[in-house]
Each structure stands twice: as structure tokens, then as C-alpha cells.
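Lab meeting, action items carried over

1. Structure of the two-component assembly. Owner: GW. Status: complete.
Input record:
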Amino acid sequence: MKKTVFVGAMAAATTLVAGAASATVLEEVQGRGELHCGVSTGVNGFSAPDSTGEWQGFDVAICRAVAAAVLGDPNKVKFTSTTGQTRFSALASGEIDILTRNTTWTMSRDADLKFSFAGVNYYDGQGFMVNKALGVSSAKELDGATVCIQTGTTTELNLADYFKANNMTYEPVPIETNAEAQQQYLAGACDVYTTDASGLAATRATFADPENHAVLPEIISKEPLGPLVAHGDDQWGDIVRWTMNALVAAEELGITSANIEELSKGTANPEINRILGASDDDLGAMIGLDKEWAKRAISAGGNYGEIFAANIGESTPIGLARGLNALWTQGGLQYSPPFR
Amino acid sequence: MSDKMISFVRTEMLPEQTPPSSQVGAMRWVRENLFSGPVNTLLTLLGIAVLYFLAVHLGPWFKNSIWNADSLAECREILAGQSGACWGVIKDRWHQLIFGFYPAEEYWRPTITFFLMLVAIAPVLFGGLPRKMMWFSAIFPALAFWLLWGGSIWYSVFAMLGFVVAYVAFRALQQVSGVVAVVGAVVAAVIWWLLLAGPLGDLVASVVPVALPYIRSDDFGGFMISIIIGVTGIALSLPIGILLALGRQSDMPLVRWICVGFIEFIRGVPLITLLFTASLLLNYFLPPGTNFDIILRVIIMVTLFAAAYMAEVVRGGFAALPRGQYEAADALGLDYWKAQRLILLPQALKISIPGIVNTFIGLFKDTTLVVFIGILDPIGLSNAIRADSNWNGIIWELYAFIALCFFLFCFGMSRYSQYLEGKLKTDHR
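Predicted assembly:
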């Protein structure tokens, strides 16, 4: 806890200095003509460089949408790979403008570390994976199991809570990285591997025999992952938040990368017209951008549903179902406030 | 005794016989080296068992190697359940493991730099080469900087001219006094670098533009970054380490305290702490918006770290010199620097060679620690490559490739140090 307070205090001091001395983040980004975006050093489906060195993934797509909205070009992004240790100070010091790195929205990160979460682009939760030979169909039957778990993460604490609450015991096998976890689990060093459900699905997809492994139905924690920005510039926070909202609203309203040109000529739906800048209302001016900002953001990689399908959806090797991340109209949690 | 007759003496020689089979050739070697006693026999059998085990398990893995595959799934399809290495990942991503995200059309630049580096260090390593090659070694840092990062060549040229300015100032002031000349040279060089080199570079660049496309540090990665950090650290840490070692033995209390304080502080903290300082803490102390290159920060920290260890290695060499060597140097009337340069340092360094190379190898391998501050060195890239759905789950092939590359470098350094030790051997042990 001491460390986070220290980082927070440093962040606050930096923000004061930065606020006094320099322009807004938007002016800075437009001045340098490039968005600085913090991503992970590699999480399957969320952010990873392909063989040409281009960053791809679900988190990366958010950065590209923001860059398209702010700079008019989804490729004007400099990706900085951050680790779990360096991510927050990189954001607090202004080295990066946005952090989209599978970061769970918690109160202490929001309030204590002085960051603003711009929304949730993926609702995740901690799950369990077991070998089917074990004959387990519910996490409640895992009493006495050996569990592979990454040390120093919230998953470790969640696991302890869950087993305690259900009056069960377990034997932890501490591991450092996901790659190591895969090896340990496949070698039989542990009966159960636990981490975020999206990670389990991605891991299972890489096995030689995925059909012999099952992800148990129980999700034992809430892990809302989303992009975040530093405190101190609400306009910048609004830009990122409403870019995300535009992607979700676009899916809800049926705006796709295929029909966006057609729709931006004007439709019968006034909200579509407002989002795409086809009406007289100038929503972009409220956040310091032009009328077509959202149109560019949606054109960059498609709407939320398209981005999901292209990077982590059921047609990809990771094969995640929409689940909680479906639109609210389809029983999920993705919900954009109105564009008005 | 002599008058006593010997009753029988064989007069003809016995024909030569072949030695018993257990005393010649392979059999003898095997008996002497592998089965000379119960313990050795046991160890030999154990060794054979281990080798057999490895061959049985690794043999098929290597034998079924697959080079032409675009994903782990494809490899598995081809192997159809058999064990086999999927080297397709190396074929697909070797350029990233070596160059990071450096633009593909510019790969020739780091490649040329690498070979020029070999040319530049050759005269330092091998005394038989013409001494004139040292001039190339001297300009190589500026050349390498320009080749790797790009931009206008004139900044590198004018940065190097700073040394010429310092030399001219030194010669001009030498008549006044040695100390004044050194101070004057440093001041002149600093003024040149801070005030004149930049504007002059701009000026000449606008008249005669000679430039390569600028590549920024974020695009550097893979072995390229390991070698940049490692070689720069090695080249800088030895001279700094020697100065620190001399400073630690100095009679001037202030110099001695500073050197002792520096060495003990740096040796007292782990390298990873220094790297975190470079990556995180400096961000807070520097004014917002300053662009202090992360690779430069890492190189500085790694160099300081290695220099502190080097200082202690070299001090060990000094400590091994007999007191008489110091006294002899004094008796010859040599001043401090001459005594160091001509008598003490050559002996001390010769003694320290294994320790120095040890530190070099350690430093080169420690460059992989930069993975913790988000720099994509080979280890970092292996994680990034695994994050691609095509290659998720591939582990041993990547690590084997990385280990092989590191081994080649470190083994090369080790062999060179043995060569140097043999060459400098003057005693008769």
C-alpha cells in the first residue's frame, strides 16, 4: 500500500507541475501529431505485435480509434510496451497519454493513484480450468486441489477469498508468467489453473488437445478492464470516454465500417446523424474536436462488435463469446449513454 | 662379484610382442579414464544413462524439426501427435528477435554497424593489426550512432569534433600548465557541445544534407538492443572502472571518499533497482516533456553498475602486485600517471583478465533484465511473440534460439580471454 501512496503522491506532484506549465493533453497530442499509447508487452488477442511489428489486438484497437478521432489517422500511434510495474508511472509521468493494458478498474487505482477510467472495454472475471480427466464440473468440487496461480496479482487474493468462503482448502503452486503456467499445468504440476477467463480461453486454445480441458462455469471475481487516463485533464478523459461510447453506440445503432459512408450522408435516425456529424448539432466541438471525430473513430476498426469479433471473438482462435460484453439490448453490460 | 660366472645368459633378443589389449588404444583410454575404480565406473554408467535418456527424449524432437509452418497449430498437424520442434516460429520471427521493430527496409544499417563494430574492436583485441586502425575505432561510436538512429550525419560529425576542439585547447594551454590545459580542454569541449555543435550541425545540414531516415529508440529491440547496451556498457565500464579503482587507492581523501561511496552504493543495490530508477523515477524528476532517451538511460545505469564491479576487480589486480613494484616505479622517478601507465596498470590488468571478462559476460547477460521495464529484448520479444495467436504456447524453441545466440557471444568472449591470458603469460609456472 505504501508504494501506491508514493506513486500517487508523485503523480499528483507531476500533475501540478504539468498543469501549471504545459498545454492540455489534446493540444499536446495534436501538436506532436502522434498519440502515445501504453499497451502490454504481449497479451494474446488484446495487444501483441504481428510478424511485421504492427501492434494488433482488442486494446490496441481502442488506441487506434482515439488516434483516428483526434488526429484523423488510426496509424499515428506510438505504442509503448509497459509491464505491470511500469504501467502506472508511465501514465502518471505523461510518457503515455492513454493506458490500455488489461487494467482492472478498482477504487484505489481510480482515486488513490489519480487516474480516470474512461469506461470498460472488456468485462472479465476470474475462472478455473481443469483437465476433464479429473471429472470436476463445478469449482465447488475443487476441495484439496493444487492450483497454479500467478503471484502478486489480484487473482491470488480472489482465490484465497473464494476457497475460504466455501470452506475448502487448496495447495497453491506459485508461478510467474502465463507461459510458465501453461507448462506447469500441462505437465500436471497442478490440477487447476486459475486466471482471468479470457486468459484461460486463450491458453486453452493453444493446447494440443483443447477438448480434454474444460473451463468451469464459476466466475469468482469482477475484472472490468478498460482504458485509463491521468487526472488533471477532464477534456482528454471525455475524448477517450466518448470515443469508447461512440464505438458501443455504433454497434447498437447498426453503424458498421461497411455502411458508415452510406449512413453519414444522413439518415432518418437523428442520433446516428449526431454521431456521424451529419446533422447541425456539433458534438465534436464540445470535446475540442471537429464534427466527424466519431465517424473517423468508427471507421478505424469498425464498431465495438466488429472490433470484438476481429480480435477475440468466436471466429478467432481465442474464441470468446460475447457474454457480459454483449450490448445491453442483448443481455450484456455494454451500454452507451445517449449522444445528445 | 665380477669373478663369479653367470651360468646362463640369453644371447638373442626376445621378439617384440604387442602389448596386451588392455594397455593400448581405446581400451586403455577407457580403462584409465572411465573405469579406473568403483566410483568412476558408477559415475560412467550414470553418465551413459543420462546421455541415453537425453538422446531418447530430445532426439526425436530435433529429428522431427519443422521449419515450414506458419503457426503452432500447423506444426501440430504436420507432426500428428509425434514429438518435434516447431522451428517455424524462428523462421517467421527471427528478424524480430534480432532487430526488434526496426523497419525491415533499414535492416542493412544495424547489420553494417555490427560488422563495422567487429572491425573497430579488432585492433583493440589483437596487437598484430596495424595501429592505424585505431583511428577507425575512435570514430566508430559516432558512426554507429548515426547508422543506427539515423538523422543528419552532421550532428555526429560535430559531436566528434568536440574531441578535436578539446585537443587543440589542450595543446594551446599546455605551455601554461598541465592542470590548466586539462581544465581548458574540458571547458572548451563542453562549450562546443552545448552551444556550437547543434547550430553548426543545423547550418551544415541545411547546406549539405546527408541524412538517413530517423529511427527512434522504441523501434529498437531483440539482440540488437542487447548488443548495443552490452557493447557500450563493456566499452565504457572498463575505463571508468580503472579510474574508480585508482581513485579508491588515492591519497586524496575527497577523491577516495567519492570513489568508495560510489562503488559501495552501486554494489549495494541490485541492478533491477537501478533499471527501475532509470525507467520510472527519472520520469518524475525531469521536467515534463523532456525526452531523455530510455536506451540512453539504461546504458548509463548498466555502465555505472558494471563500472563499480570492474573497479573492484581491477583493485584486486593492484592488490596482487608486490609492494616492490610501486617502490621501483617511484625509484625510477616516474610521476603518478607514468608509473600507473607503464608499470602498475599493465601488470594489474593482466592479473585481472579472468575477473574482467567475467564481469563483461555477466553484464552482457544482465541486459535481459531490461525486459522488466518494458524494453523488448529477446526475452521480452519471446513473450510478445507468444501473445500472437499463431504462436501462443510455443516455449522451448524460442528459448533454445535465444540461449544459442547468447552462448555464441559469451563463449566467444571466454575464448578470447583465454587467448589473451596465454599471450600475456610471462612467468614460468
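2. GW to write a short summary for the group page. Key points so far: DSSP finds 16 helices and two strands in chain B. The first helix of chain B runs from residue 25 to 33.
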